[in-house]
Design goal:
Blueprint lengths: L8 H14 L17 H8 L5 H21 L9 H11 L5 H19 L11 H4 L2 H8 L13 H20 L23 H13 L20 H11 L6
Length: 248
């Protein structure tokens, strides 16, 4: 299979079209060091050279589809860092066995995550932030046995758990037995947290958490190191309390 030494113009066109459709790189980054998220074009230019043609095309198509599905299912999403996700796909492309299958599985599971929790679902969260920046992942990793192997925040094993958990929550919604996961009125977003998540408060809280290194997955860093050893959810609640963002 031929190796791509530079980004094929047709792949660049796909990335640029998705950037324009999704508003990248005008979208916000949660990075303490920059204001806007890395464009898909820049991510593609970083990861595609050196890859076999088929894998490069699978990654480009997957990144574009993920960004466009984020826009469709989470149109109010505030932070759009996909650097570490792109790095995860690039790492999978370098694996000697089943690389193409792994990438396709990851993209399909990402599709399922967004559809299960997004705008047209029974769950209907407003943002992808808890998934993208690893709060869900850190809690899941913290419940695993101490000797369990490390699983990354965008690896298939965790993504399968997220989809399964979403299916459980959908059943709660339809059962009508849970106060947090009740059926929502049209136009309302679900917030099972004790702090307010209106856009201004969401930005204020998470900007401060990022500056304090209290985000478990630095999704804005291509070489970011996810961490689950601290109580990130507890720290977020404490910071929300200090900022006066708790709901009455």
């Amino acid at each position: 299979m031929p190796i791509i030494l530079r980004v094929d113009p047709s792949l660049l066109e796909q990335l640029v079209a998705a950037d324009e459709h999704c508003g990248l790189p005008r979208r916000r980054s949660l990075s303490p060091d920059r204001d806007t998220a890395t464009s898909l074009r820049r991510l593609g230019e970083r990861i595609v050279p050196g890859l076999p043609d088929g894998l490069a095309r699978a990654i480009v198509a997957g990144l574009c589809r993920t960004a466009e599905l984020m826009l469709a299912e989470f149109p109010h999403n505030l932070f759009w860092d996909l650097d570490l996700l792109a790095a995860t796909l690039a790492r999978q492309a370098r694996e000697p066995i089943r690389a193409h299958e792994r990438i396709e599985e990851t993209i399909a599971l990402l599709d399922a995550v967004h559809v299960t929790f997004g705008l047209r679902s029974a769950i209907r969260f407003r943002y992808t932030h808890d998934f993208l920046y690893g709060y869900d992942w850190a809690r899941w990793m913290g419940r695993r046995p101490a000797d369990a192997p490390f699983v990354g925040p965008y690896d298939a094993e965790f993504l399968r758990y997220v989809v399964a958990r979403g299916t459980e929550l959908e059943r709660l919604v339809t059962s009508g037995t849970d106060a947090l996961y009740r059926e929502l009125p049209q136009g309302e977003f679900r917030n099972p947290f004790p702090f307010d998540r209106s856009p201004d408060h969401e930005v204020r809280l998470h900007d401060e958490l990022a500056r304090a290194s209290l985000v478990p997955v630095p999704a804005w860093e291509f070489d970011g190191q996810p961490d689950y050893h601290r109580d990130y959810s507890g720290q977020r609640l404490c910071r929300a309390r200090k900022l006066g963002l708790l709901r009455g």
